[in-house]
Amino acid sequence: MKVEQVIIIGAGPAGLATAIQLKRYGVNPLLFERGEAGGLLWNANLVENYLGFPLGIPGPDLVSLFVRQAQHLSIAVTPEEVIELGYEQEMFQVRSVQASYSSRLVVIATGTKPQRLTDLSIPADVAERIFYEVYELLQAEGKYIVIVGSGDAAFDYALNLSRKNRITILNRGAQTRCLPLLWERAQNVSTITYQARTAVTRLMKDHPDGILLDCQGPAGGLQFHADYMVGAIGRVAQVDFLPETFLQQAPALEEQGVLYRIGDVKNGIYRQTAIAVGEGVMTAMKIYRRLKETR
User: Fold this and answer.
1) Is the pTM here over 0.85, yes or no?
2) Does a structural domain hold residue 73?
3) 36 is in which domain, residue-wise?
4) What secondary structure letter does DSSP report for 116?
5) Residue 29: exposed, middle, or buried by beta-carbon count in 10 A (0-12, 13-18, 19+)?
């Protein structure tokens, strides 16, 4: 089995930035991505704090530029899902659905996954109309979509989808948790309505094609007849492929400088493209320095 110098798991902004900087040093990492390169940026309505775009740039457009830059440097993305990562005898063992790989250095840049609506029973006949990532609905037009959540993601999703659809945002609490800028913009869009203190209590199939949402609001029960529902109640680190034994080893491996966790997978509320890209470049610089010292 060939031993790779560096394996990067995840081709979002952090993983791509790491790969691009390593390539500049003459290091060819093996870069894995189970889906589309770009990560959470596919959901972003408008990225306004990434330098170089004074008017902002839609997330998918920024992804396109990142991918073009990687392709220009002949960086290939391996379209495989990593299902397990282990470490023994000073070597990482990376297992994907298709094959197994070994490497001396690993970068985990797997980002986040959405929190599921676990307190709500979702019948099988409506499951296909429940979404957690907005990019899956970007082609929808003339639909009525209910978004559950009150943070930046919920309002950003609403602004994104409201160009072609009617949107209702349901917040089970009294206060929003989004940026004031997003709140102001949503209030100025006629196709977006907002309901505070409103919780979904039951979902049912709504004929011919749709969802009936039973809700409890300030004035009592109410219903919404929607085409789709989007859950936007938060995100958690995407580390399903890491066994408990590896998670126990991880801090020591990071201290040794052979394992790096970067970007949204570890940044919690500080999920920003600029931060992820900066961490990717810095990580590549650290890796190159280590490779030079160990030659």
Assistant:
1) yes
2) yes
3) 3-114+235-294
4) P
5) buried
